[in-house]
Design brief:
Helix 15 runs antiparallel to helix 16. Strand 25 and strand 26 form a beta hairpin. This protein has 28 helices and 29 strands. Strands 1, 2, 4, 5, 8, 9, 10, 11, 12, 13, 14 and 15 form a 12-stranded mixed β-sheet that branches. The chain has a 5-stranded mixed β-sheet with strand order 16-17-18-20-19, covered by helices on one side. A 4-stranded mixed β-sheet has the order 27-24-23-29, with no helix packed on it. It is an alpha+beta fold.
């Protein structure tokens, strides 16, 4: 629909005219179990004030609008319903509009998603609205700054669990007209919230209830106040045996205690439900009173401790949103960072300070979260943290590594700069001043400046309003084993403006020396890096270190280089750095150098193989293994690929055999076996016996998740049969394993099979969001040569895909099917590689393509050029 992409200017004009008093929303899901029924009746009644009689519009995307009544008058649908908008032509000072419509059940995860559990045939629904998909369920003013109270009413099968942002006020049975008895749930009105965080959950969910209680301490502004919060957790009934709700509640209670004490603003909503739902597009969503999570956080197979830490981090992230985002909400998506950057930082802080993972939280942050930011910030599509978001399509694209991870990294540095106490004091004032309202950048900076006594205007300009990252390089000289000079050089150009963007960095520098078999920190300097060159006089005269680590302790956000001597040390001994966080940062510097074609991919692979076996932090180990596999597939030139594959395959197999039985490390290496086995005959020969229970390493759990990864490996090699995959799925028909089966089937080689699969992915609409992604994952497991026939069809198809599919589905197809795995033949320049040239031709021929589509193609081109440049090295 041409007018579905709401613009910032349109939203601002509507905001200046309207004040919304209340929404009353009725949803009729009584026929949800009949898959032949594509949609459901929805009614929204909205009361609002208007500053002028000039007309306005509502937003709705659905199957049909059946009636619109404005102030008691029926409006002509042929005139007022235009695409995704319902025009209200003449307004009074006070207005009531009622829209009856038919909304569509979703299989894309946008709007009201309907899912049938393959394990038991039960039907489940839930909503996902951010940034602008509430309009797929009920007519509304779809923008974050038109907050209002919402009252939901839901008709659904009587035996179901039905939940929303607020508590149930009344549930009453309805006269039975069909085979399934139905009831109506009436929920209490919410406090004023934005449309995108309203929510409804309905289905035969398994539910567990608990309660949180605390008393505010004597230092609190609410000293002595008792806080009682009802808790609930939901999952599908077939997952109930794997639902570790006790652990989920444990983390939840720790977070509620931590954030209520930290912010000294009592939890602003009535209850705290958490639902783990199928085929979810996000990690989680901060709907107040009912947070939704991807059910991949529930583990039916053996999972590492890092997997549970990641879940705890997400629980804390969403909980931080109850204050940053739900209580106080950005006025428009330009200030998305006001919630996502802050919640990303707060989530890691809460895990570090309120859970047993402690400082491992910051190691995880450094090894994974910041790595995502570094990748995103080097794309040609990078943008400031405080971004320019002209419309909701751009908002959808900006839920990225800049808004989340770079923003969190910058806030981590800000806290180091102003002090945590000042940051907390400023946050408390922010909540008190702007509760239930909308804000922009200065509304947060003002109380932070007042609390810290520092003018944060220049900090904001340097960090929030520029793009790209600084590169910091140590320059060291020594004589007779002593440092004679040491300085830090900073390079920082804003890739958007082309201007120099030097930033102040408060950081630590670590000197490391060999001590027995380990690299130990011998000296540490805390300093401010300013300008292009910063002299570190405190280092002069010290023993020349074996390794210099800039940004030791990970206080700042910058790409760190290693000097020549440190690089040699890191390639030989990175795994021996005794401090876990410092070790992670050294590995990060090596990986950035590999991505930037400063270190050969084969050298990185060798370093991982030789030094990772003793890695005790599983999040770091998993990152190293993932990076090594990626370096082999994308950064290694064809003439060196065979030797590098043999090295990595032997290393993975050897480390699996040597791993402690039953350890997380053993599981990481077993999963890596399934990845390298796609290209290695020697490894693949080991996989089939493992699936048959032969020569399984002691302590290794050959459960469903691992078995399916191994089957996918064999399928990609053409070494499995459909009958074998069918039998494996029949043994345990769950949603997780159905998706894994879909990937395995899609991985089969063969030109005809690939052609049929291509049509199903690109032209068909039968696949749900999860099964679509599973099919794309399998399709792209084939050797690069087998995918070459689809290069031209890709560039021919993507315009139509973008025009006809939803943003979520189109993005998955365009990003997932890009022919990214290409070889640079000897003597060829990266810029002359045919797929890169074809990408450039498409970009030249489509200067006016939708922004979101061009952004994906530009980012994929950048990744391809990076891989070809690395191969050229």
């Amino acid at each position: 629909m041409l007018n579905s992409n709401l613009g910032r200017n349109e939203a601002a004009a509507r905001k200046s005219q309207l004040s919304v008093h209340h929404y009353d929303v009725h949803l009729d899901l009584s026929q949800v179990q009949d898959l032949g029924v594509p949609g459901f009746p929805t009614r929204s009644t909205i009361t609002f004030a208007a500053g002028s009689s000039t007309g306005t519009f509502l937003d709705f995307i659905g199957l049909a609008v059946t009636s619109v009544f404005l102030n008691g008058e029926s409006l002509d649908l042929d005139h007022v319903v235009v695409g995704a908008r319902i025009h209200l032509p003449q307004l009074a000072p006070e207005n009531e509009v009622t829209v009856d419509a038919i909304a569509a059940y979703s299989t894309s995860g946008e709007g009201l998603h309907r899912f049938v559990d393959p394990a038991d045939g039960q039907t489940y629904t839930y909503t996902q609205f951010e940034p602008a998909d509430a309009r797929r369920v009920f007519a509304n003013f779809e923008q974050p700054d038109l907050k209002a109270p919402f009252t939901f009413h839901v008709i659904a099968p009587t035996t179901w669990e039905v939940a929303s942002n607020q508590s149930v006020e009344n549930q009453r049975p309805l006269p039975t007209t069909g085979a399934v008895p139905t009831s109506q749930w009436d929920f209490a009105p919410t406090v004023p919230i934005s449309t995108y965080i309203t929510t409804v959950l309905a289905g035969p969910y398994f539910k567990v209830e608990e309660n949180f209680s605390m008393v505010f301490g004597p230092e609190s502004a609410h000293a002595g106040r008792q806080l009682e919060i009802p808790l609930a957790a939901y999952c599908r009934a077939s997952l109930a045996p794997h639902f570790d709700s006790a652990e989920i509640f444990k983390v939840t209670k720790a977070g509620l205690k931590y954030f209520n004490d930290l912010f000294d603003y009592p939890y602003p909503f009535v209850k705290y439900d958490q639902a783990f739902v199928p085929e979810y597009n996000l990690g989680a969503m901060e709907n107040p009173g009912l947070v939704t999570f991807t059910e991949t956080y529930l583990h039916s197979s053996r999972a590492t401790d890092t997997a549970y830490q990641l879940r705890a981090n997400t629980i804390m992230h969403e909980m931080a949103h109850m204050w940053f985002g739900d209580l106080v909400t950005m006025g428009w998506w330009d200030d998305l960072w006001l919630k996502e950057s802050v919640a990303d930082f707060m989530g890691h802080l809460a895990v570090a300070e309120a859970t047993p993972w402690g400082q491992k939280s910051w190691t995880l942050f450094a090894s994974r979260r910041k790595a995502w930011a570094y990748v995103q910030d080097q794309f040609p599509t990078t943008h400031p943290i405080a971004a320019d978001i002209p419309d909701v399509e751009a908002a959808k694209a900006n839920f990225d590594g800049i808004t989340y991870a770079k923003g969190a990294s910058v806030l981590k540095q800000l806290v180091a700069y102003v002090g945590q106490d000042a940051f907390v004091a400023g946050s408390r004032e922010y909540f008190a001043s702007h509760a239930y309202s909308n804000t922009s950048l200065n509304d947060l900076l003002k109380p932070l400046s007042a609390a810290s006594g520092r003018d944060l205007g220049s900090w904001s300009r340097d960090w929030l309003q520029t793009s790209g990252m600084s590169t910091l390089t140590p320059v060291v000289a020594s004589e007779q084993g002593r440092v004679t000079s040491f300085s830090i050089e900073q390079e920082a150009a804003d890739p958007v403006t082309g201007k120099m963007a030097l930033r102040p960095h408060r950081l630590a520098v670590g000197f490391f020396h060999h001590d027995g078999g380990a690299l130990e920190r011998s000296h540490s300097f805390s300093l401010d890096v300013l300008g292009t060159v910063t002299d570190v006089s405190a280092a002069v005269g010290l023993p020349a270190p074996a390794l210099i680590l800039l940004n030791d302790q990970d206080l700042s956000y910058a790409k760190v280089r290693l000097d020549a001597g440190s690089l040699t040390t890191a390639l030989a001994s990175a795994g021996t750095v005794s401090d876990p966080l410092a070790r992670s940062l050294v590995w990060s510097a090596l990986w950035n150098a590999t991505r930037d074609a400063l270190v050969p991919a084969t050298s990185y692979v060798r370093a991982v193989v030789e030094q990772s076996s003793a890695e005790s932090d599983i999040s770091v180990l998993q990152t190293l293994v993932d990076n090594a596999c990626y370096a082999l597939d994308y950064y290694t030139p064809p003439e060196l690929h065979g030797a590098a594959l043999e090295l990595l395959s032997a290393g993975v197999s050897g480390h699996l055999d040597a791993a402690r039985p039953g350890s997380d490390g053993q599981l990481v290496w077993a999963r890596a076996l399934a990845v390298v086995g796609r290209g290695s005959e020697a490894v693949a020969d080991r996989i089939r016996p493992l699936l048959s229970g032969v020569n399984v390493p002691a302590g290794l759990s050959m459960d469903g998740n691992l078995r399916w990864q191994l089957w996918q490996c064999l399928a990609a090699r053409g070494a499995a049969t459909m009958a074998e995959l069918d039998a494996e799925l029949a043994a345990d028909t769950t949603a997780e394993f159905r998706a894994a089966y879909c990937t395995a089937v899609a991985a089969f080689p063969g030109a005809n099979h690939k052609q049929r699969l291509w049509r199903r992915i690109v032209e068909g609409t039968a696949l749900s969001n999860e099964l679509l992604s599973a099919s794309i994952a399998g399709f792209t497991m084939s050797p690069a040569g087998a995918l070459q026939p689809f290069v031209e069809p890709y560039f021919t198809a993507i315009d139509q895909v973008w025009a006809e599919r939803s943003l979520e589905i189109a993005g998955r197809i365009v990003r997932g099917l890009y022919p990214a795995r290409q070889e640079l033949r000897p003597g060829m320049e990266p810029g002359d590689q045919p797929v890169l040239r074809r990408t450039d031709a498409w970009l030249e021929q489509h200067p006016d393509a939708p922004t979101g589509l061009r952004r994906i193609v530009l980012e994929q081109r950048d990744q391809l050029l990076r891989s070809l440049t690395a191969q050229a090295l």
